[in-house]
Design goal:
By secondary structure, the protein is mainly beta. The protein has helices at 17-23, 26-33; strands at residues 52-56, 62-65, 69-70, 78-79, 87-91, 98-102, 108-114, 124-128, 133-137. It binds zinc ion. InterPro entries: Met_Sox_Rdtase_MsrB (IPR028427), Met_Sox_Rdtase_MsrB_dom (IPR002579), Mss4-like_sf (IPR011057).
């Protein structure tokens, strides 16, 4: 159950479903832990292009730099690259897409798409739920 044993493949942040429910909003829980998707165009970061870092909304691990965010027009925040080692990829159960998750806590971020022709260095689009991330402006003091 609440096994502290490292199951391998999972990250450094491990919590039970109850613990996650206690610290996440219902919407965050639905998306991060139950792999939900926010409604297109409703996310708070879709049109944000300020300087800073996007952390995992679940565990606070830095995931994306603002410099890798671009306007995809798809209705969700889009990044062409995650921070090294911060993001895991796995085949989505739908058999078509590639799911991306926070490497530290396993929280669901969204999906990554490749070869869509966006003029970015990687030609990848990380399509991320705003709910899954937390923006920290570059000029803000550390919160801890
Ligand atoms: Zn996380």
């Amino acid at each position: 159950m609440a096994g502290a044993g490292d199951g391998g493949g999972s990250g450094s942040v491990q919590k039970s479903e109850e613990e996650w429910r206690a610290i996440l909003s219902p919407e965050q829980f639905r998306i991060l832990r139950l792999k939900g998707t926010e409604l297109r165009g409703t996310g708070e970061y879709d049109k944000v292009f300020a300087d800073g870092i996007y952390n995992c909304a679940g565990c606070g691990t830095p995931l994306y730099k603002s410099g890798t965010k671009f306007n995809s027009g798809c209705g969700w925040p889009a990044f062409f690259e995650g921070l090294p080692g911060a993001i895991n990829r796995s085949p989505d159960p739908d058999g078509r897409r590639t799911e991306i998750t926070c490497a530290a806590c396993g929280g669901h971020l969204g999906h990554v798409f490749k070869g869509e022709g966006f003029k970015t260095p990687t030609d990848e689009r990380h399509c991320v739920n705003s709910v899954s991330i937390k923006f920290v402006p570059a000029n803000s003091p550390p919160s801890l």
